[in-house]
Amino acid sequence: MAIRLIVGLGNPGPEYEQTRHNAGFWLVDQLANSLAGCRLQRESRFNAFVGKGAIAGREVWLLEPQTFMNRSGQSVGALARFYKINPDEVLVVHDELDIAPGLAKMKKGGSAGGHNGLKDITAALGTQDYWRLRLGIGHPRTSASQQAVADYVLHRPRKEEQVLIEESIDKSLRIVPLVCEGKFDTATMQLHTV
């Protein structure tokens, strides 16, 4: 198996564009911009921005749901069914509270860990067995912040955090060709090596 669909999670609208919760959108935007002839365009039947490009010689779909985060599964499920993409051919890129800014981790399956976007995707795909690329945004408790989690993810990162998140996105983009070839062990080892 190899990845045929890369989903970036976030919330639509300019008021959310720069918030921590949109880290998945940031990566997919950069990926689309790096691929020849790939443009993310609104597709009403999927309620998402959709693009297609060649990565490692393979056709890969890019998707940014334009529902709110907790309804992301609508778009993911609709596109996966339409193009007959199996759950283990899906990579969901999302913000991760339990990982520090500057780090990214990849895994297949597991619980949603309180992430409402993942919960909805799991429900839409009927399984937890899809790949996740988790971009660390840190947790308010680790910065001694009294901010509630919902408030924290819907705010912009501090400048120093933004730099670290961008570094983790750059590192993550370098392993995308490997996952599109199905070289998950190599990709994971590269990503997890600091």
Automatic annotation (TrEMBL):
GO terms for molecular function: peptidyl-tRNA hydrolase activity; tRNA binding. Keywords: Cytoplasm, Hydrolase, RNA-binding, tRNA-binding. GO terms for cellular component: cytoplasm. Coiled coil: none annotated. The record marks 11 as: Discriminates between blocked and unblocked aminoacyl-tRNA. It is found in: Cytoplasm. The active site is at residue 21. The record marks 95 as: Stabilizes the basic form of H active site to accept a proton. TRNA binds at residues 16, 68, 70, 116. InterPro entries: Pept_tRNA_hydro (IPR001328), Pept_tRNA_hydro_CS (IPR018171), Pept_tRNA_hydro_sf (IPR036416). NCBIfam families: pth (TIGR00447). This is Peptidyl-tRNA hydrolase. It comes from Massilia glaciei.
